[in-house]
Amino acid sequence: MSGDVTNSMTIDEQLAYLTKGCVDVVRLSELKTKLERGAPLVVKVGFDPTAPDLHLGHTVLLRKMKHFQDLGHRVVFVIGDFTGLIGDPTGRSKTRPPLTPDDIAANAETYKAQVFKVLDRDKTIVDFNSRWLGALGADGMVRLAARYNVAQMLERRDFRQRFDAGKPIAVHEFLYPLAQAYDSVFLEADVELGGTDQLFNLNVGRDIMPGYGLEAQVVMTTPLLEGLDGVEKMSKSLGNYIGVTEPAGEMFGKVMSISDELMWRYYLLLTDESEATVDTLRRRVSDGSAHPKAAKQALAHQIVSDFHGAELAAEAQAAFEARFTRGEVDVESLPRFEVLVPVGESVALARVMVTAGLASSGTNAAQKIQQGGVKLDQEKVTVVTARVDLSCPEFVLAVGRRAVRIILRPLK
User: Do 136 and 88 have their domain in common?
Assistant: First the structure.
């Protein structure tokens, strides 16, 4: 990650650095006023530990937290062990099943281990919102709920759509944005960061803080990063993700598999390159003075360096070039995936592709086959309905510039 930014930056330079890549800033004038005071700001971000692993989509927000750290501000990483018990209704067409306390505890430990791949461990405060939300008690929660009304809650698109469609909205779902808002009250946050899908939740905190005698927090949102398919947001469940703990070679190969157009989005959101620098490189690729492959390799090297160091990034790049430029394939070095196949039966190659994270769905896998980008042991696959069985228990499956080693195991 980038080194510390000196405090010799002007206020306007600080604003440009902190708001780079942001979608919403509510409000920029207030952020400028807070910065002009010269005191470190309390910058709060909440993560509900809903899954054990972080991917590059999460790091867009983590990088913005790091930018505030670079300027000497106090970043609080809030693990939502209390709010996770409620379940965030954002983007949901029905009530989200709550996590168990054991799930939350296990996922939270994994989060803590992974966030410091981006954040400065010595400058990050990690806290759990059960510490203050649990202490509220029933009477405190009732008083908190009295600070917002149902009409305000129904301004939220998710709730309004469900209400208009006659779909149920559980009362406890209204408590989620209020609980998240109280995090800001307790921490006396100056700034709260979140993804664009969190704008409503963040603004609830902004709305209720003055009622507690606090200055309203500035709300800043970062974009949701598209996954490898360039369509859906990055998600483990869709198989279009790059995990922050993935091996360097796999991470490098996945970045190289994205489209040339998506590459510029990754440059802006996953590196510290300025918009002007990225625009210049994009123009050079467009006019032919720079090759898109070289630009993408530079991007992949930079991302892998951030998570694994420059030495492993160089090794990953050399291995990639050997595999796909010179046709050398070191099978043992490829990521390995095991697939269970019932004895005497076969399994669709499309399903294997989804299992290995080479396609986001069966439909997506079929499209990749139709486009001629799928190879099995160096042979192009042309049949969308192709199947594999235990007669060939091990093979190399390549989709575009990504390759994996598939091991078929009998399901007894």
Answer: yes
| Beta-carbon count within 10 A of 412 CB | 6
Inter-CA distances, 155 with 25, 89, 150, 179, 200, Å? 20, 14, 9, 18, 9
Local structure of residue 216 (DSSP, 8 states)? P
In this structure, is residue 91 part of a structural domain?
Answer: yes
**Domain coverage including residue 407:** 331-411
Which 8-state DSSP code applies to residue 16?
H
Q: Longest C-alpha distance within the chain, in Å?
A: 73
> Which residue, among 336, 355, 335, 343, has the nearest Cα to 409 in the 3D structure?
343
Q: Which pLDDT belongs to residue 268?
A: 92
Q: Domain check: are 290 and 399 in the same one?
A: no
149, 169 in Cβ contact below 8 A?
Answer: no
Structure tokens at 394: 């091990």
Task: List pLDDT tens digits, range 270-311.
Answer: 998 988 999 999 999 999 999 998 999 999 999 999 999 999
> Does residue 163 sit in the same domain as residue 290?
no
Encode pLDDT of 127-161 as tens digits.
Answer: 999 999 999 999 998 999 888 878 888 887 778 88
pTM of the model: 0.73
Q: Are residues 65 and 168 in the same domain?
A: yes
201 contacts 24 by C-beta, under 8 angstroms: no
What's the structural domain count of the chain?
Answer: 3
CA atoms within 13 A on the CB side of 166: 0
Q: Do residues 93 and 160 share a domain?
A: yes
With a cut of 50, list the residues of the chain below it in pLDDT: 1-6, 92-93
Instruction: Identify the three-state secondary structure at position 410.
Output: strand
Q: Are residues 50 and 91 in the same domain?
A: yes
First CA to last CA across the chain, in angstroms? 48
Same structural domain, 78 and 110: yes
